[in-house]
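Intended use. Records like the one below are meant for learning the mapping from a protein sequence to its folded structure. Do not use them to infer anything beyond what is encoded.
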Amino acid sequence: MEYALKVESEEVTGDAYPAGTVRLTYRSGFDGSRDWALFLPGRSDRKTVVYLHGSFSDGGQIFTREDIRAFWLSRILEGGHSLLSINMRGTSYMSPGATADLTALLAHARSMLGCRQFVLLGGSGGASSAMAYTVLHPENVAGVVAMGMCGKRQKYPMLFLGPDAYAVSVKNTPCCFWGQTPTRLGPWLRALLSRRRGG
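Structure written out for the chain above:
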């Protein structure tokens, strides 16, 4: 499902935020939830970096967490890239609602913010979400930097159980987190599984 977002912009101030950073607030066309993202414009001839925060954080992580800011934000700024850091409903999971919202937010960035191509950047839960979104919408992604998605076989056994094991495990995350049944999530899961199988 695709929908247009009605986005309100407000300049963000504070030592952590470079000049020109704006907060984009919107209501999801998927289910009416309110959410936000941070946008820092760069050069129009560069790819836009879309930052997907890690677990137990929010869309401000790349600006406020010192180690991530020092390594990634500095390189994004040096490279002249625009940065879109999304809140993802306050979690790092690529739920059906977050997937629909990200698709709409990327369309908004193309039409209203001058962004053309997107590279997803994420660590931990954000890396898993970057990979899940790329499987679902490869047409929207020019590249992925996924760090620490599955560091240990013991912690992420589903990634090592077969060609569809990761996709099958992903379905359990929104079911547990959002309290929805696999039946209700059927179209989203079928799309994820069919793309994992190459059909």
